[in-house]
Amino acid sequence: MATLIFPDHPSPVADAEALKKAFQGWGTNEKAIISILGHRNAVQRKLIRKAYEDMYAEDLVKRLESELSGDFEKVIYRWILDPEERDAVLLNVAIKQKPSPDYRVIVEFSTIYNPEEFLAVKRAYQHRFKHSLEEDIAQHTTGDLRKLLVGLASPYKYAGGEMDVKLVKSEADKLQDLVKDKALNHEEVIRIITTRSNAQIVATLNHYKDSHGTAITKHLKDDPANDYLAALLTAIRSINNPQKHYEKVLRIALNKPGTDEDAITRVIVTRAEKDLNDIKEIYYKRNSVALDHAISKETSSHYKAFLLALLGKD
């Protein structure tokens, strides 16, 4: 369930006029920007961008970039873009992050988005950056991590709930053999995770746990410095329970020394129109603290106010 609160039929012309007014005079009226953009869905935001450009012969995205700064500018920029374009930008930033790519973003989008959603993101990526997503991932990664991430980004996977029961058992047994051999980087592991439907993978992992008395994820924590194992663990968790995965991302981002604003921004802007309310509930059950309270404590100023608006709190 989404958290975003928005009116049914706002006027994009009136919104464009109000935003233009917010840019004029001495200093930017950030509160006015938040009151509008923090309460408009993706379709409404697109109409505002078009109305603003038609009325003022100016790109609203570029104007916002010039008016704002810091984490507030980042969150507004990611929010005002069309969702597919925003996700393409997030992927590109993650791939080119130094000293090594942020595999979490690639894994999240490729495992949690349904095939149509992810295909739209890949098209937006290619249109914006003039490279395929797979090409850029391959260029900036190596070894087993490259095989896993390119594999996750490549196929158009079956999204239905049907599964092959015989395959569930045989592939669970195959995984057990590979765990015994300490060969979790074997091509068969990568094949199963990158080509099977999420329903098939969940059934296989559940059968593995039931048959062998422990979850396969236990064996992925033996070497925290191994990016491949960490990415594989993230993929399994994302496939098994996306909302629980996002709760953990937020929990780590909010509790680590030096708040990880990029991770907070990514989760809030990508899930506010989807399932952020479910993530909020899991966060509260796990931490005994409301997510909006935690964000209020660890962030500040207009950035905090905009995040709270997307969380359904003003």
The CATH homologous superfamily of the largest domain: Annexin
N-to-C terminal Cα separation, in Å? 18 Å
The first-level CATH class of the largest domain is given as Mainly Alpha
Helical fraction equals over 70%
Average pLDDT for all residues: 95
Oligomer: single chain
Strand content: under 5%
- Class by helix and strand content? mainly alpha
User: The CATH topology of the largest domain, please?
Assistant: Annexin V, domain 1
The description of the largest β-sheet is:
none
Number of helices: 19
Name the overall outline.
elongated
Q: Quick recap of the structure?
A:
This protein has 19 helices and no strands. The protein is mainly alpha-helical and 314 residues long.
Describe the secondary-structure layout.
Blueprint: H1 12-23, H2 30-37, H3 42-56, H4 60-67, H5 70-80, H6 83-95, H7 103-112, H8 115-129, H9 133-140, H10 143-153, H11 165-180, H12 187-195, H13 198-212, H14 227-240, H15 242-255, H16 261-271, H17 276-287, H18 291-298, H19 301-310
